[in-house]
Amino acid sequence: MAAPLRRGDPQRRLRPGGRSARINEAILTAVVDELLESGYAKLSFERVAARAQAHKATLYRRWAGKEELVAEALLAQSGRAIPVPDTGSLREDLRLLTHAVIAHMSSPQGQALLRAFISDAGRVPEIGVAARAYWAERFTRAGAIVERGVERGELPAGTDTAFFIERLISPLFLRLLVTAEPIDTAYADRIIDALCPGDERPPDT
Amino acid sequence: MAAPLRRGDPQRRLRPGGRSARINEAILTAVVDELLESGYAKLSFERVAARAQAHKATLYRRWAGKEELVAEALLAQSGRAIPVPDTGSLREDLRLLTHAVIAHMSSPQGQALLRAFISDAGRVPEIGVAARAYWAERFTRAGAIVERGVERGELPAGTDTAFFIERLISPLFLRLLVTAEPIDTAYADRIIDALCPGDERPPDT
User: In this protein, which residues make up the domain named HTH tetR-type (chains A, B) (predicted)?
Assistant: First the structure.
């Protein structure tokens, strides 16, 4: 789908709670704040360093470019907001995942970030690099739910995990961004019913 | 889904090619140009009238408000760009529809309109009224494909047409707006295969 985010994730090199980890977190938080305040186009290593009270050299040492920095900041943020569950049940995992997606997308911060990205993407083609890196990683993480479902026999062997996740989340984004129809957990459950064989309730298609 | 666009479509009252119909068309074209140039928030009856060289009173007589005017202008435009086919085959109709959607969404004008709407929607909550009116009408038109498929026995009785159309087009919008993955007709065909029972090719899920 996309190139790996970066070589050697510095999160792994950083002692949790150490000074370097704290600076890292301040930088990633500053990136999200800059995105919310000024958008992708105006974001720069200089502005992020100033906001995070970090040295510019630290940023240049840790991130190859703006795309990598932004993708990592968004992953850190969405990783906290939308954890990938592992309950032992495909349907339950999908429910928890979609419900977290809805909660995040319904929050002012989640909406603002999404709209800023989409709006900027019309003017800044390079934004696609950050978007693809971010989503490739999110799809890999969420895809684990589908893979475990296949292993347990809840989904047919050969199920395309990325395509499954696309069909799971895309109706939510369509309603939120395009048709302005309401999204709720009942709607998410309906999508899950349509995607999962052996429906517990009568299919509605 | 949403209130009907307006009482008594003036398109029907207007003699095609007549002076009044020409003014109507100039107004609707001016609305799209204004949206592209300045966005929804700044659009006004005054600006549209000036651009279309029409009287403001004409606009106030024909449209109840900005939301109705914008929804009708977008419907006129997308009606030309994305006709609803009726070939006698569900799969062929869905193919033609999605391929037209992809062509329109890939055009600079289609993309600019969509991004401007999404970006403005964060700041202008009333935009949801225009979006819902537009999409309710587009879903009704496209839903005819699904209804004919049910009548011909190509889809099960009781198929929810709006939910079917949502699952048909949402993966395209997800890729275009959110994940920045490429969309092409092969991808559309894959979505159709996943939605239609009795697949001609082996299902990929």
Answer: 21-81
